Amino acid sequence: SPPLRQTTPPTGDLDGRLVGHWRHTEAMGSGGFTMAIDTHCLLDGGGRFEWWSKSSMGSSDSGREYGIWSVSGSTLRLKFEQGTHLAFDFTLQGETLFCPREGRYRLWQRVN
Question: What is the chain's mean pLDDT, rounded?
Answer without folding.
Answer: 87
